[in-house]
Specification:
The complex is a heterotetramer. By secondary structure, chain B is an alpha+beta fold. Chain B is 37% helix and 28% strand. Chain B is built from 5 helices and 8 strands, in the order ααββββββαββαα. In chain B, the strands form 2 sheets. Chain B has a 4-stranded antiparallel β-sheet. Chain D is globular, with a radius of gyration of 18 Å. Chain D folds into 2 domains: 15-106, Translation factors (Elongation Factor Tu (Ef-tu), domain 3); 119-241, 3-Layer(aba) Sandwich (Rossmann fold), CATH 3.40.50. By secondary structure, chain D is α/β, with parallel strands linked by helices. Chain D has a 7-stranded mixed β-sheet, sandwiched between helices. Classes of the chains: A alpha/beta, B alpha+beta, C alpha+beta, D alpha/beta. At the C-D interface, strand 6, strand 7, strand 13, strand 14 and strand 15 of C face strand 1, strand 4, strand 5, helix 2 and strand 6 of D.
Amino acid sequence: MTHAPTRKPRLAVFKFASCDGCQLSLLDCEDELLTVAGLVEIAMFPEASSRMQPGPWDIALVEGSITTPHDAERIRQVRRDCTTVVTIGACATAGGIQSLRNWGQHEEFLRCVYARPEYISSLSTSTAIAEHIPVDYELRGCPVNRQQLLEVILALVAGRKPRLPAHSVCLDCKRKGTVCIEVSRGVPCLGPITQAGCGAICPSFDRGCYGCFGPALQANCGSLTNHFLDTGSAPKTLLPLLRNYNAAAPAFREQSDRLEQLAQAVSGKVDSAVE
Amino acid sequence: MTLDAPNLLKMLASTRFAEGLTHQDLQSLGRAARLLEVPAGHVLFREGQREDAVFVVFSGHVRLSMKVPGRGDITILTAGPGDLVGWSGLISDGIMTATATTTDFCRLLALSSTQLKQSCDADPQLGYVLMKRLAQVISRRLVATRIQLLDVFAERRNHS
Amino acid sequence: MTESAAVPGIVAPAMNSGDSSDFIGNRRPESFLLRDDLQLLMRRLQEDGYTIVGPKVDQDAIVYGELTGVSDLPQGWTDQQQPGKYRLVPRDDQRMFGYVPGPHSWKQFLFPPSAIVATAQRVGSSWQMSTQDEPAPRYAFLGVRSCELSAIAIQDKVFLGGAFVDPHYEQRRDAVLLIAVNCTQAAPVCFCTSMKTGPRCQSGFDLALTEIDTGFLVEIGSERGRLLVEALPLRPAVSEEIRAGERGRADAERQVTKQMNTEGLHDLLLEQLKSPHWETVAERCLSCTNCTMVCPTCFCSSVTEVSDLSGDRVQRERQWDSCFNVDFSRVNGIPSRDSISSRYRQWLTHKLATWQDQFGTSGCVGCGRCITWCPPGIDLTEEVRTLRQLAESPQLTAAIGETASSSLPPNTAPQNTTEGRG
Amino acid sequence: MAATCEPNQNPWLSHSVRIAGITREIPGVLTLDLEFEDSARAATWAFRPGQFTMLYVPGVGESAISISGDAADTGRIRQTIRDAGNVTHSLTGLPIGATIGLRGPFGSSWPVDECRGRDVILVAGGIGLAPLRPVIYHMLHHRQQYQELTLIVGARDPALLLYPGEFEHWRTQGLNIIPTVDHADESWRGGVGVVTTVLERLWLRSPAETMLMTCGPEVMMWYTMQTALGRGIPAGSLFLSMERNMNCAIALCGHCQFGPYFLCREGPVFRFEQLRSILRIDDL
């Protein structure tokens, strides 16, 4: 139950390495935006308004991952300035698609992309916010689900914990009546190991879940990977499934590393066969 | 205070510690025992000091405490009727590991550990029975201490 | 298992006439409905105000949904099933019911995946609480298999048999008309004969059909069923038709090859609660909830709050939930089954053992859905077989105990909507 | 076995109750006095000691809360709540006059009738005293029907003992109360140690004629049972109250299953014999 607040909670949105899509989910709450604006004071939201007010803030929505030494310092300041820190989206919660750099040659990338790489100051990794500071709530997804975003804001305003599912996408597929495409068509689908929250969209459009909400609680990623391999998927075709938006989430990372080794072993065999 | 031997034996036999001991065992114990009646606040022994007596609480309660620098005298256990306190004397050098203070009027049986040890050495059968009894007491106290350590009443807030 | 899972005395709603005894254990001679006249039956149902739900092809599978007429039926289609695999394939004939139960079950209509059970409306400084009493849909189920009749009977015990009756289930159940269809084929995952739930429909239906090439043998199961076919051009079945029907039903029975030994299963499973085998299953189990979702008897649910933005109007929404979810069961807010092995153990022992204690019947009807629709294809009959072997051989148990690895540790915190007692 | 709380009623229906009083007990724990807004429902309200209700804060959710008041006091329902999760946090923040929902009472109850003519020991740990308080009220109202009545009550430290203000009154009415805490300073006059230590040395008139009821953390209850058995109290005379999350309270949702039981239906109060073989199985 809402207690009459003495003042509206002050909300700030911070951006790190990201595409801004998750922040836009907030602006995308067209019907509800006015209500939200009535419940909180949007004190800093560069994507929406150039009017920026100084901290401290009650609620921080943090988008994006940490990819530069400067950002690594800046996020610590955010933590100091904000009572509740909510990370939003796959970048902030797992490092995002840009965490693919974690497997690459950082220096080489810099040389290829920038004429004067010596002016670039970046880290060789893209990491989740929670690897740098304690985080109060995590909103998964690429992008986040706007209903979940609203739920978090409403819950924090009401002084309760947000209701965020910890179950797999499969449960939501079944509630919707969506037939399991993994079983009925043999489409590799990350649903069984992916946290729900998206509304199980992809399988209802005949597309395997690509895990944009990251690993579910206690996800048994090893078993699912084994199953895909046993039913004829090649390691190199499975690799991109696990290594995308949530590539750096530990449960996914562990299996993609394993697949990479397997793929190398296979290609090694192929190479020697060709020779 | 003195008590005639038969009454002392009767009293000893009625304690939980002595439950099920043979008459012969009881007599051996009784020879080492004397009755003690003390008011509240009486210190039976102090942490770090040598003490010859082992006490069986007959009635009343005894507070066992340890000094913690900066926190004062911390009670670790309250012993009550049937409990044995000060058993360090029976199994080691007699240096007490805690301070024992009565919290109310107490009737205790004080047994001389020197005498008891001598009896046990002379009669290994008695020694075995007594040490087994002691081991049970200590084991029960260990289990209780473990439960206490588990801190089962600690607030466990839901994850957030 | 000590008693048959096929519940003969199905709860009253399907047979609301007084003379249902005529139809139980005393089969009437079968009548015959020509293939082309099935449309008449469906039209009759629609005229009587029923919404017909039954099999249709959708999403590369034979699913259950609303039917407008015979043309919606999966005529000429069948399925191939094995652990972890389902394929829709064409038949070489024009059978309408020539398939084995697929991903859906009738529970989605009697116990919908999502339903509003109560509402609260702010009125001044107070709240007005009410329950949702919308009129229940009037369904006619077409194509209910024998195992599915048993599943409905089991859910009847869950929702209607206790001290508290679920009004939502009751309303839907009261209104439903059950037209069963006998199986004439079985899948490799079927084991209804072990659970004594099939393949032949025994009771609990209004009508039971057996499909042969030219049409349907019709068995009447209730007064409601009799009234329904009164206006239809039924004629007594001729011996050739009867024989064809018997052949089809015998084919199904013969094709059920999977077996589960239910003898003493209740005690056996409860004596194996500490078996290391649960860890072995947990290496494969995804804890994804699929088996519980496709199971026609699983009834777990959660009620959550759905409020409008102002918070003045709140709906209490009941949704399907699963014992495979980490935060499903808690002590003091802390998950009480915090490993995949403990959750699989809960599911299997509930389904096959403690269900008996709770409802006097097994929770399994042998339909095989949990085997087909488990992505890695975990087969409960195999797990039961292994547990039985282990029970009989302590040496084997010790050997497994040494190699079993523990399941994965939790990585994030659960969120709670309700909590334990204060 | 639970009886239907209201025959022919939709079991999902919450009744509006108004918070008529709030008693702050110990940090994070308070007792609400609740009154039905509907006088007809108030007239039919009755519960048995050990039962619980589902308290509902619209928009936040429901929580199973044990009834801690006097069954003879039909005018109001007293429930003691610990701020532990979303719903209880919300419940503990409401002002007097606020309206919440209530369903119930649900569940099994303590064997107050079976205890007649016998010695009774209650062993409570922490907030576990809440569901036992109705037993105390009942037995003290009918004091002559029982023999020796003992309450062993444990807490983390003296400041966390529940209902200490009532102890003196209960003592004068014939309840032997032995408080014991895990930690205390010199000012504490009661015992230090766990409840099992107290039970270990409690004088028993006749173990075979003694009944014991306990509520508290599962570990505490398990060792209490072991100690009681060691003291010669028959297994059939031992009772405990269990806790799991409850969602529906009417044995339809599956959440509170523990072995063959629904805690909301066969529980929360069990005879120890019912749980003996499953209580110490990990993650059941």
